[in-house]
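note to self: dont lose this again. the chain is below, predicted strucutre after it. 214 aa total, dont forget to put it in the shared folder this time
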Amino acid sequence: MVRMRATRTIENAARRFGFARVAGVDEVGRGCLAGPVMAGAVVLDPGADVPGLRDSKDLTPRARERLFDQIVRRALGWAVSAVEPADIDRLSIQRASLAAMRTAVLSLAPLPDLLLVDAFRIPDLWIPQRGIVHGDRRSAAIAAASIVAKVVRDRHMQELHAGDPRYGFDRHKGYGTAEHLAAIARFGLSAAHRRSFRVPSLLDAIGTERADVG
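---
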């Protein structure tokens, strides 16, 4: 698969229509079994290029860290918001993702004039917005948002691992890898796990009592 570099074409077109502060918005951790869902919002500076922006999934951890440092130094504004596992279980992952994106946007100061959102539209916001399919591959601002959210979330999962190394959060970051599933089968669910995310067959095998441990 060709790894496409995100561009500022969409943002530049928006600025020609008078939108001065264009924010990209994206979330990470949606499909994980453990840890929060996080959303990033970034307003790039039109006069400060950040070379190499692309979907965070197409970057190595080292490249993400390097780009994170450049984004937070050069952006006009950036923010990251998290919704924790207990609230994901209460809200549903879809509503939790939208809530994280909404909070990230509202944390920007000053607020943006326009939002470019990866795939979705965020409800209950008065700011004009455009949902862009595959936005993290097409828009530099959305790619930047995906990178800052991913780096902050990965660092958080490293902290969770330091507090409870049984599950290997430092390696799989909460995704449903074979290693992670084997750890759940052995230890049950921890406080960092999402109870509403059912692992087919596995949780049936370990039983309700063990699944509530932690």
